[in-house]
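Page 47, continued from p. 46.
Same chain as before, 295 aa.
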Amino acid sequence: MPERGLSTRVARQLPSPVLVTRHPNAEHTDAMDVRIRGVKLEYRRVLPPSAGAATSTSIVLLHEGLGSMSTWKDFPEALAQATGRAVVAYSRHGYGGSDPVTAPRSADFMHAEACDALPDLLRALGVQRPVLLGHSDGASIALIHAASGHPVSGLVLIAPHVFVEARTVEGITAARAAFRTGDLRRRLARHHDHPDAMFGSWCDIWLDPAFRNWNIESCTGEIDVPMLLVQSEEDPYGTLAQLESIEARARGPVHRRVMPGGGHAPHVEHRGQVLDEVARFLRGRAPVADRHAAP
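Result:
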């Protein structure tokens, strides 16, 4: 198991689940709230058209550092259709319509989410061996969760971070400027009840000089389940060195797909291709040949 520091105060507010209630303002009838010792998390579960999909092996979506349940838009429905599996999307503590965080995040905030909050949520929803599909920070959380011994049946990692790069810091610095003087705050407010607190807690920890040494590369060596890695060639928040590090250390089969262009969200920019790759991966078939992949 990889090393981790003490759990953050955020994690200590998320122990055992106690209550699930229907979301009062949901656009979808399957949108719900789960309360874990008083902390509300919003989530929704999408079932595929075919009957009999097991919820215990659902695909669970872990959003990016500025994401939420709603930023996935209709991707969960498309994913359920493409794979024939149930899909769960949720907003982590401090995001979307979930309760806001009241304490600053510490450097081990992703470990706290992966090892404390996520297991509690999965137990509450009856998900036992999920496929975790994580984007950016969510992909890092998925890696840590699997490396810490929690049962998963596979990982789909989109634009994962396993160490801090100069490009990452530059991208987040640009995002901070866009939030302060551009329209980023307005756009985020569509998806978050508390956009200022959400953005500040994310931005402040990533730009903290002490966070430059954050590194979870050792986690990959603890994982033997199949992994699908997806990233854009010129991702503004990280280079392909992230994927190469995972490939070099993984103990299980790894497939990778590098998409042309410079976006950070290939599941949005290359939606059809990514859906096809995930469906092939879950059927146990290798992805389409990738001319960008390392030999």
